[in-house]
Structures are given as structure tokens and as C-alpha cells.
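Journal club prep — side note

Before the paper discussion, L.F. wants everyone to see what a predicted structure for a comparable chain looks like in C-alpha cell form. Sequence:
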Amino acid sequence: MATTFTELKHFLEEVGLNYDAHEEHHIIAVGFSGEPDDTSYRDEDDDPHIQLLVRLAEHGEFVAVVVPQAWKIGDCKHRAAVCEAVARIQGKMKLIRFDLDDEGHLQPNIEIPLERAPMCTEQLHRAISSLLMVVRHFDPVIRHAMDTGKVDLSLAKVPKPPENIAEILELGESAGGLDAIERLLGDGDVPPIQA
């Protein structure tokens, strides 16, 4: 087996994430709550909460990470605009894809074919971080397409990069110093996952 369910749980535990493991289906549910001012995204209960599912399949040779039922577009009269928006988002983002299930739920996801290679912690952490970023930053784009039938990628809430060295140093200190920045850039042992 390329990767085990126990290894996936360990990858989440090493960054302090709480989860619900469903051993019989090889699915792990992880929830992330945000501040209402940080994102326009809301779940079905109108909370700024994102649930992710990590699923191990094909005897450990395939891992999928998905945000189930992220947006309900089954009855949306602007489905074509929403589909255009997500296709354009997919074109800008590595790894991300969107599925539309039979009930009309749009679900961003990342699929990782491992075959016989073991999964490493960075792969799972990157998948989780990427999905959280897509949902939080591109929710305004998707909601706008749902409401108006127009696609406007400029509505994305992508953080503005620092403009000068003082802002960069301040950002570095707030991120935990040089070691944290190296982890953020992928040179450290464990990339950060923001809950």
C-alpha cells in the first residue's frame, strides 16, 4: 500500500488539526472556522466555516481532498456564468478542479494519484491550504456569477503583496520570523496551514 489511513491522520496531527476519522470509508473530515470579516464564504448554516474531506482510495494509491457542497448552484439561473468563473479560476490555480454533483453542489477539490509512491506531509498540507485559499479568496467571484450572471475575477479577495521592505519585514515578524517564512516558501519541514 502506497499510503495508509494512519499516515494521513498523522499528517494532520503534526500541525495540530482536529478531525473526525471515518475508518470504514477511509474519510477524514476537517473543519476550519474563520472570522466573518476575513471571508464572504458561508456554509449552509451561514457560518464562515469550511469543511474539508480527505479520502484515501485505491488501496492507498489515490488521495482526494474536497470541499463538499461548497456552493449550491442546482437552481441557479446563471449556472453558465458560474461554470465560466470556475473554469477561469482553475486556469489560474495549480492543482484545483471543480466538480458539480448530481444535486447541483459545486465542489472544489484536488486529486493526488500516488500509485506506489508514499504520500508526504507537504502534499497533503498543500492540498488543504490551496483549497482553503480558493474558497476564501474566490467566493466573491462565484457568488457574483451566481447572482448576476457576470464573471469578474477582480472581485477575488487575494491579499495584496507588500509594497516595500518595511512591510515585508513586518509581515515576516507577524508570521513568526524567518523560520516561519522559510516554511511558508517550502524550505522548512512543515508548511503552515491556517485554520
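L.F.'s comment for the group: Strands lie at 20-22, 27-33, 49-57, 62-66, 71-72, 97-100, 105-113. Keep this in mind when we get to the figures.
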